[in-house]
Please model this.
Amino acid sequence: MFGIRINMAETRSQDRSVETDINGLRQALCALTAVVGLAFAAVPGAVRAQYELAPGDGAGLVGDPEAGKVFWETLATSSCKNCHGIQGQGGFAPPLAGRGLTTEDFIRAITQPAIMPTFPQYTAQHMADFAAHFARMPPVTTPGSWRYPMPPDAGQGLMVAFAIGCAQCHGPELETPRHNAGAVFADADFEWFKKHVYQHNAVVWDYWEELELANMAPYVRMGTYSPDRLPETVLAQIWEWMTEEGLLTPVTASLPQPELTDDGAVYTLTLINQGLRDKGLVAEDATVRLVLPEGAEVVGASGAGYRGIKPDPESGNDAVVWQLERIAPHDRISLQLTLAAAATKENNLSGYVAWPGQDTKHPERLNLRVGQRPRSFP
Ligand code: HEC
Ligand code: HEC
Model:
């Protein structure tokens, strides 16, 4: 289908250096749970974990089903869940629950590239724990469905990304890699793309460091693809689709719960462009709108580019508006709005930042909601 040839001959990836002790990744993951989503936050103990597992490595290991369950539920293994289902009930990939899969089955799956990439970031013990966890689950009667179904009008490169599984993690428009490439726009060519797919686990740490996000995510979630299974000519079709659709500006926002002061409830919206200095895409002429809930009373608003209160064309409500000339890589823009009283959960402040895309033909837009913490690209 779609001219994809994925070579099923068995190969093992080479060049995996073992850099760290077995417990390192686990410790890093514990540290992580506390800080997920905090851009630029320092996380002690980030580990560049790569393990060179061989088929026999599970021999003699005893899996701990509780540890397996806990690890399965961490963000680190969101990667597995995107394809195998949140409960291992299947989806794009076969079910894992209640099938009696062994530690060796798991090790084989993460070390031998197929449709599924390899995951050199996990240990044999992780796989033993997964095997124990899924073995005690009941068998699946109805396998789950794909996390993202393929849109009927998908173009060639996007179809390929769906067929291989990229889209189950990266969404129906491959947003994450388009943001990542936008973050390093001047350097983003097929060579860059290839490196991040075929040597993912090895290069991603340097990439984070380059973006000065080195301490942001002490784990790697994507797998590493093999050109034997995903040939360059096929990968090129995905890149072509992404660049035709256009690369995206890595602007991220946080809008925490308001601070309650004598003047009222103070909301602070912070916008950050996580791109690489002098290389990443710039959001130019961005409009920020915080749409006021019914009955909200504005005490004041401040921050660069404040334009006053205007009707919001989408909701018909009033919106507090800012117009920003540029959100360039490493800019950190803070905007404040004070309401006489905090909005309620049911009738909350919301909004969006919108700008004409520099590389994409479509306008770019970031929706805002209270409680939102900065996410990162990745
Ligand atoms: C991109 C989608 C995808 C991701 C992500 C993924 N898998 Fe898979 N997995 C598959 C597919 C598809 C298969 C069936 C074999 C094949 O074609 O690769 C499979 C097979 C397996 C099998 C063998 C099942 C059997 O029937 O023998 C195991 C075990 C497994 N995966 C575990 C994992 C674990 C653990 C993770 C996370 C570290 C993971 N997978 C992530 C797609 C995925
Ligand atoms: C299992 C989920 C998953 C699958 C499947 C997946 N990715 Fe990713 N990808 C990620 C995540 C998560 C990141 C962010 C880095 C990380 O944590 O590994 C990422 C990052 C990237 C990046 C940015 C560069 C970088 O190193 O961070 C590119 C490019 C990319 N993916 C392309 C692809 C392509 C192409 C495919 C399919 C061939 C694919 N990905 C499949 C999860 C996935």
Q: What stands out?
A: Residues 77, 79-80, 82-84, 92-94, 96, 101, 105-106, 109-110, 114-116, 119, 122, 130, 165, 168 surround heme C (ligand 1) (CB under 6 Å). Confidence is low (pLDDT under 50) at residues 1-46. Residues 54 and 111 are 8 Å apart (CA to CA).
